[in-house]
Amino acid sequence: MQTITKHYIDGVFVESHGREVMDSINGMRDDPQAPWGGFKHSGANHATISPSEAADSLAIRELVEAYAHCADRRDAKGQMSIFTTDIHFVVYMNAKDPTPSQELYSRVALAPVFAELNKYDATTHFVGQSTIFTLTADRATGEAYCLAHHVTAEGGKRRLMLASLRYLDTFVKMDGAWLFAERRLYVDWLEERTLS
């Protein structure tokens, strides 16, 4: 069986063949000559997943990365396209405060949020670890970490605002593509400093 999954890459949906990816990974699983000594870790006890679950997990990770990529390229249209039309987007500027700073209920409402990035000269959203908590054929939940770097330049001086972000996400698979159905953004901490 061959699994074909759609992924959002550089503004377009492309297809990948999950089975081919899994076949190449499985071929290295027990290979001590693999660059990292194979996938075996002492003490690791992972459940076996199907090729379609592996393809879905990869597609979800690529979705999370597409969000960061679109943000850094100021591709607001691309960024909006990876959300359902009735997205629930919630921002907590203080992760310890249970009251949201901002709450939006549609893809269209995201436009001014993404346009806000235009005030920065450069941004880098570095996606760290991501975990899928639940996964079914058409729905998933997960968490992703991100260090968001925002650079401004004013009067010949450059400043950096660094934000440690966590996203709690709900994903849905529609027409073969994974989308964000809900995204909760938590700001764990902020740091600002002058750059040389």
Strand-helix topology:
Elements: E1 4-9, E2 12-17, H1 18-28, H2 51-73, H3 76-81, E3 83-92, E4 102-104, H4 111-115, E5 122-135, E6 139-154, E7 157-174, E8 177-195
CATH architecture identity: Roll
Give the strand content: over 45%
By DSSP (H or I, 4+ residues per run), the number of helices equals: 4
Q: Could you give the count of β-strands? A: 8
Low-confidence segments, given as residue ranges, are 1-5, 7-11, 16-31, 34-42
Q: In short, what is this structure?
A:
The chain is α+β, with helices and mostly antiparallel strands.
Describe this structure in words.
- It is globular, with a radius of gyration of 19 Å.
- The chain starts with a strand and ends with a strand.
- It is α+β, with helices and mostly antiparallel strands and 196 residues long.
- The protein has four helices and eight strands, in the order E-E-H-H-H-E-E-H-E-E-E-E.
- The longest helix is centred in the first third of the chain and has 23 residues, at 51-73.
- Helix 1 (18-28) crosses helix 2 (51-73).
- A hairpin with a 2-residue loop joins strand 6 and strand 7.
List keywords for this structure.
47% strand; 23% helix; 196 residues; alpha+beta; Nuclear Transport Factor 2, Chain: A; disordered N terminus; single chain; globular; 8 strands; two-stranded antiparallel ribbon; 6-stranded mixed beta sheet
